[in-house]
């Protein structure tokens, strides 16, 4: 690296006011790329956090509304017809998958009820798996950013400090006015890494907990609905 370029890069802030913009503007190109990458990762994380928070809110409201309709005394056939041509998720998706298998077994000239309970349970399990994948999608990005952003910021800090020390050695000047700007630029990268990582970790823990809670509700509903269909199947067999 050219000595004059190092000095010019690391020392332009000496004697001038240190601001966030000036620290970024006068940082080494490698440190700038680190900062830009961390800011982009932070924006991406916030987009995921907002989207998932809204999504989980819709899930909770939808499940509450469906449970109210399901336990209101309406017939299963009527409830199924009301959802048949609509895009569904959550409990509605589980209900639709099980009822679809139920109707396939009883519709037509030949009734295939031999292992209907097992087929319904498999349909419910597959529906729960699909809903779980939908709930968990992109949450892992938050964990990745939360664990890696501080180290990426630290890499930018180390690089910036190395550049500052090279400029100090080249200029033969160790005064605080010369050293402080370069060190501040370097530490700014770590600060941005922490700003990206801390909300990502907090949001990951919260969203992961909310996702598991919703999946628990889905599994509980699947067990109850499977029991209801099993009783109806036994009643038909006894009739």
Automatic annotation (TrEMBL):
UniProt subcellular location: Cell inner membrane; Cell membrane
GO biological-process terms attached to the record: bacteriocin transport; cell division; protein import
Gene source species: Pseudochelatococcus contaminans
Entry keyword Chaperone: no
Primary location recorded for the protein, binned into one broad class: membrane
Transmembrane spans: 26-49, 139-162, 182-204
Family: Belongs to the ExbB/TolQ family.
UniProt xrefs under PANTHER family: PROTEIN TOLQ, TOL-PAL SYSTEM PROTEIN TOLQ
Pfam families associated with the record: MotA_ExbB
The keyword Cell cycle is assigned to this record: yes
UniProt domain MotA/TolQ/ExbB proton channel: residue ranges: 92-218
InterPro entries reported for this sequence: ExbB/TolQ_transport, MotA_ExbB_proton_chnl, Tol-Pal_TolQ
Function: Part of the Tol-Pal system, which plays a role in outer membrane invagination during cell division and is important for maintaining outer membrane integrity.
Oligomer status and interactors: The Tol-Pal system is composed of five core proteins: the inner membrane proteins TolA, TolQ and TolR, the periplasmic protein TolB and the outer membrane protein Pal. They form a network linking the inner and outer membranes and the peptidoglycan layer.
Membrane topology, from the record: Multi-pass membrane protein
Keyword line: Cell cycle, Cell division, Cell inner membrane, Cell membrane, Membrane, Transmembrane, Transmembrane helix
A Gene Ontology term for the protein's cellular component: plasma membrane
Designated name of the protein: Tol-Pal system protein TolQ
């Amino acid at each position: 690296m050219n000595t004059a370029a190092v000095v010019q890069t690391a020392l332009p802030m000496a004697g001038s006011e240190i601001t966030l913009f000036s620290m970024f503007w006068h940082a080494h190109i490698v440190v700038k790329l680190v900062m830009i990458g961390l800011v982009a990762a932070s924006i991406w994380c916030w987009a995921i956090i907002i989207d998932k928070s809204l999504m989980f809110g819709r899930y909770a409201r939808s499940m509450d509304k469906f449970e109210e309709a399901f336990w209101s005394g309406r017939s299963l056939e009527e409830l199924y017809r009301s959802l048949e041509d609509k895009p569904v998720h959550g409990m509605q998706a589980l209900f639709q998958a099980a009822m679809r298998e139920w109707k396939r077994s009883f519709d037509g000239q030949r009734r295939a009820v031999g292992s209907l309970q097992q087929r319904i349970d498999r349909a419910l399990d597959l529906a729960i798996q699909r809903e779980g994948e939908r709930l968990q999608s992109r949450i892992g990005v938050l964990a990745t950013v939360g664990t890696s952003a501080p180290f990426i910021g630290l890499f930018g800090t180390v690089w910036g400090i190395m550049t500052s020390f090279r400029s100090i050695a080249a200029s033969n000047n160790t005064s605080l006015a010369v050293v402080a700007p370069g060190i501040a630029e370097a530490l700014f990268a770590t600060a941005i890494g922490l700003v990206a990582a801390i909300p990502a970790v907090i949001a990951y823990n919260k969203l992961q907990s909310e996702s598991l809670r919703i999946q628990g509700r889905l599994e509980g509903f699947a067990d109850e609905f499977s029991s209801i269909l099993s009783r109806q199947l036994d009643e038909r067999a006894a009739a």
